Amino acid sequence: NKDITNPDDWEVKEKIDEAQKSINNNAANAIKLFDDILQQFPSSPRSLYGKAQALDALADQKRSNELLQKALDLYLEVLNDKKTTNTLFKVVAERAIKRLRFIGQYRKAISVQNALIEKFPDISEYSNELAVTYLTVNRIPEARVILQKVLSKWPNDGFALVHYGFILKTVDDNLVDGIQFLQKGIQTNHKGVIDGRFFFHLGDALTRVGKNDEALKLYEHGVKHGVFLSKYQRSLYNVPRLSGKPWWNKNETPYDQLFKELESNWKEIKREGLNILNQKGYFQDESEKLRDKGDWKQFELYARGQKNVENCKKCPITCGIIDSNPSARGCKRGQTKFSVMHPGTHVWPHCGPTNCRLRAHLGLEVPSNTYIRVAEETRSWENGKVLIFDDSFEHEVWHNGSQFRLVLIVDVWHPELTAQEIKGLSPI
Ligand code: LMR
Ligand code: MN
To answer: Tell me, what's the ipTM?
Structure first.
């Protein structure tokens, strides 16, 4: 406490310490105590800080943004106070940044972060965290410049290395340099570098430059660190207790009814899909940069648990089936979509984002020489039949045939999720 207490605070230090103690068990009372002190000593930074902390705690308990805003105003007041000690400045700024990010006030967070960096230019963490804020709001150029600065001053800073490598790989498609930076960063073992996202993209980059063995080793290393469920199952938004396996049979799920309905109506579904395909401009290019080569497009009917009403008007039979099945219609961690793939397409090995769904493909137009590998087993589609797999497992697709392949993709909840769990899951 010594370092955060300035000369003005010392006369009331005992009272402050007393009030401080009640923040955790009685935040409302702590606010009163701090108000009393502030009546007498309006410019005591520690009392302002204490009151802000109490408001912050109360905001948390009551989930009140209004209280949080009050707390933040006080934090900022402390930061603007010349009498605030350096140590108190750090503590308050760090907390304010965290809370400003939490309620999405990124501009203010950025200005506090800049103040912090100006005051403590030798602490790389403050610059790194500013880069993270910029990345969060997709201001890539600013993030890039900051990370470059950090690395010119501290070339072995693991946190900056992995984040810079992440930008090189995901934004610039610069696989070779991305690999260098991600690898070097992960090897430091610094705080923040053992993170699924960095392992995920490093492995992906290694695969795409043909270093499959290195990718596999990295994935095994990731499993040891707990960032992946298994070397093949590398989704990052998981419910860990769910069982996982690459391929599923219809009768291993409670969705028999849905799958039967899809299969018995496959010709109507196909007609609806072909009808849209024949009108140019409705199918959209696959947008996640998963393609090595070729032409692969999709027409989305449901996503994140939301029905695309306009698109569904174009295929009433298909959407009627989905609508009557809560597990598909309500699968807010998945989609329902038509997927058309043209000859000469290769989709890089990749993993879906979550282990909370299973993915069914209803074969509609299936030429020969089209394949999908999930983990270690390669299969193909059949007209009018569903193929069910867990797309959190690594999968790869080839179209070496001579005419387009059309399937309907339907995501459903993983059968082991409870209704209660599903309620709490964020959409993906
Ligand atoms: C995938 O889900 O990644 C692919 O299997 C989709 C497709 O159209 O084959
Ligand atoms: Mn996929």
So the answer is: 0.95
